[in-house]
Design a protein that fits this description.
By secondary structure, this protein is an alpha/beta fold. The protein folds into five domains: 56 residues, Vcp-like ATPase, Chain A, domain 2, CATH 3.10.330.10; 185 residues, P-loop containing nucleotide triphosphate hydrolases (Rossmann fold, 3-Layer(aba) Sandwich); 52 residues; 119 residues, P-loop containing nucleotide triphosphate hydrolases (Rossmann fold, 3-Layer(aba) Sandwich), CATH 3.40.50; 53 residues, no CATH class. Helix 16 packs across helix 17. Helices cover 39% and strands 18% of the residues. The radius of gyration is 27 Å and the shape is elongated.
């Protein structure tokens, strides 16, 4: 069936990028992705419409993006004005952002929420993701930083923030990014009552009112804020529906993400060798890139360690057939769903080594929590990634209770303090056969990056490995990061 121009609504606005000064001609029917060889449509409202003399034409960012699906991540390649950068984000995070925010705006609809709060450790790519989201829509975002808004003059700060929202609403679709937004989002109860700081509360009230108005009007305007602070330090009014709602966390990178980004800087072999070490050292992607550049240009070898958030991703070699170390009755628990909790009464590192192998067997990314500093963040990230949370019982009873009630994924507790509401799995229950004992030794060795050569494995298989001897071997590996046949002989004398 044929169609005529009358079949289409006129375009109120189109955003395009052109390789020539020519525009899309009047009378042309366009939609997102349309190209006439000179111009490509980045955004059209309505989604499919006809260009008229009244159509507002805007020129968008000349950035191109391509996506590559990896095992756990999405690799995004950005090409802007001749430069090329790559980013890697967990699939679950990126797909959520795309479904709820990018595609609705691209199709001329309001996003799931006009406010989006990206949270997490520094250097994980929150600001980069906010810019990518905007530029994928052909929109150059309005960047709002504290130093560009806050003024010592009375009323000036409030005026600047109002102008930002006014301009954004005049030039729809729009994206506003509040970068390093901690000062804007801080709890009002923490703010000083001095008149000199009244402007901060005024700014927050303006943001509240503007966001609510934009949400009520269902405008194609996205307001993204990035923060490194705990959600408990954010004014809870910002976290309500119609404003930012619950934050979406950008986690620390896993080994796969680290490798694909680092091989843009280093050789593939170097990147592969370093990726695991940098993940286990707790480095963010920004830290890792900085280290890789220094290693390449200055020859720096020492890897810095980061533990400022109290949790980390863990990456070790998989122990083949590790499930053979797990008795059938425990396997039933591990496969019973997502809300099981078990407790391994051992030093935390041994519990973590076992937990990581269980996580790999269950195809869940492991996250190790050592203290309470950013516990809510660690739990939310594990929930989002559908991972396995491994927690040290050295934390306070309140923190243990927080995990028990808020983790929506499996949890393994490890340490000398019992967890009464978790199912206890003594280490001895995993030593029911010679094979299971060997697998336990390999798991702990892999956690400490200690190789068990074939000759040492043959020696272990030829010995009478009682539980005390196996425990002593595990503790020796954890405490020294080393094991050899001579050590095994000495321990055998003590515990045979």
């Amino acid at each position: 069936m044929g169609w005529s121009l009358s079949d289409f609504v006129e375009c109120s606005v189109i955003v395009l990028t052109c390789g020539d000064v020519r525009k899309i001609p009047v009378g042309e029917v366009v939609e997102r992705g349309y190209s006439n060889g000179f111009c490509t449509i980045l955004f059209a409202s309505p989604p499919k419409c006809v260009v008229t003399n009244a159509t507002k034409i805007r020129y968008g960012s000349k950035c191109e993006y391509s996506e590559e699906s990896l095992t756990n991540n999405v690799l995004i390649t950005e090409r802007c004005d001749g430069s090329r950068k790559v980013y890697a984000y967990p699939k679950k995070v990126y797909e959520l952002l795309k479904k709820l925010y990018i595609l609705p705006v691209a199709e001329g609809r309001p996003p799931y929420s006009n406010g989006l709060l990206l949270a997490g450790a520094p250097g994980t790519g929150k600001t980069a993701m906010a810019k990518i989201m905007a530029r994928m829509l052909g929109i150059e975002p309005t960047m709002v930083r504290p130093d560009s808004v806050l003024s010592k003059y009375v009323g000036e700060s409030e005026k600047r923030i109002r102008n930002i929202f006014t301009e954004a609403k005049k030039n729809l679709p729009s994206v506003i990014i509040f970068d390093d937004s901690d000062v804007f989002l801080s709890a009002r109860t923490l703010a000083s009552t001095h008149t000199s700081e009244q402007y901060l509360r005024n700014i927050q009230q303006i943001i509240f009112d503007e966001m609510q108005s934009i949400s009520d009007s269902k405008l194609p305007l996205l307001i993204i804020a990035t923060t490194n602070v705990k959600t408990s330090e954010i004014d809870q009014a910002f976290l309500r529906g119609g404003r930012f709602g619950d934050p979406i966390y950008i986690p620390l990178p896993d080994e796969e993400a680290m490798f694909y980004v680092l091989k843009e800087i280093l050789s593939e072999n170097e990147a592969r060798e370093l990726s695991r070490k940098l993940v286990n050292a707790g480095l963010s992607m920004a830290d890792a890139i900085d280290y890789a550049v220094k290693k390449k240009t200055l020859g720096i070898e020492e890897i810095p360690s980061r533990s400022g958030r109290g949790y980390s991703r863990v990456s070790v070699d998989i122990v083949p057939d590790f499930e053979r170390a797990i008795p059938d009755y425990i396997k039933k628990i591990l496969k019973s769903g997502t809300l099981w909790r078990i407790y391994i009464p051992e030093i935390p590192e041994i519990g973590v080594a076992i937990g990581v192998q269980i996580a790999y067997w269950l195809r869940r990314p492991p996250i190790w929590v050592t203290d309470e500093r950013y516990l809510d963040e660690a739990v939310h990230i594990t929930n989002m990634l559908e991972g396995l949370l491994i927690a040290s019982t050295t934390m306070s009873p309140y923190s243990i209770s927080y995990i028990l009630f808020n983790a929506k994924t499996p949890v393994i507790f490890a340490g000398e303090t019992p967890v009464s509401s978790a199912y206890t799995v003594p280490l001895g229950s995993l030593m029911y056969s010679l094979e299971s004992k060997i697998l336990l030794i390999k798991a702990v060795a892999n956690f400490k990056n200690v190789k068990i050569p074939a000759s040492l494995e043959r020696k272990l298989r030829g010995m009478m490995l009682n539980e005390k001897l196996v425990e002593s071997i595990l503790h020796y590996i954890i405490s020294t990061g080393y094991i050899d046949e001579h050590v095994i002989d000495n321990l055998n004398v003590l515990y045979r």
